[in-house]
Amino acid sequence: MRSFIVITREATMKSLQHILFISLIAVSLTPTYHGVEIIGGREVKPHSKPYMASVQVYNNKIKTYEHCCGGALIRSQWVLTAAHCKKQGRTQVVLGAHSLSQNEKSKQKLEVKKQHPHQHFNQKTADNDIMLLELASEAKINKYVKLLKLPKDGNMDVKPRTRCTVAGWGGTTVGSKCPSDTLQEVKLSVIDRKTCNSKDYYNHKPEVTKNMICAGDKKGREDAYLGDSGGPLICRNKYTGIVSYGPETPDAKKPGIYTLITKEYLDWIKNIIGVQTYNMTAEELY
After folding, report:
1. I want to staple 131 with a disulfide (CB 3.0 to 4.6 A). Which of 117, 136, 141, 274 is the partner?
2. Is the pLDDT at 201 greater than 90, yes or no?
């Protein structure tokens, strides 16, 4: 998935910060995937993306929850994210946040009741990198917390050069250890699969399949990175994909790989949730 490694932070917080973040890395990253953070992006207008979710895992050493992935609220009790974001131990989702550190009245903190990773998720190939988080209680839909509507028929494909947006709380500089305190976003362009699988790009390692989509910056200066995994890829105002896999540092020849929300995945979501994915009521939407 979007596996990005966070290495060191500037020595402002010194040894204690170093120890704390090393523990965060151990908890939040799998051997194959790096976390994802927004590189070269910009801070979003507060609460302009009310569907965004911060997925957080409890750190027993420091007795607090720490951000590890992003996600999108698709129903009042369900968050869609990446399968590689599956964590052991206590997990919660924070909705209605702009700043992770500030005590914003808009925030809703909900315990994750169960994690539902795709049954055919392959950590080595990044295929089927999609997961549903079932919340222990329903989110309260208001002006700060809203649903992100799934595509009705799924995304068959997205044309190359289509401009898309990714948002997240991942770190904002290469090598940073801490997630961004405020929600950031970056604009990227879709790259066709043939190019993405070519020798000069990923060379089929991993294979960019029909279930995936490539998007990046032609200059290699902007990308998603640690902590953005699982967040939504929005193309032409449509929920198109999920942040999955990418390089440790932005690279024009190693664009981000995203899980494409296809009809097959919509059927999978329907089977778990038990309702049509696009059958949202007015109360849920507003």
Report:
1. 117
2. yes
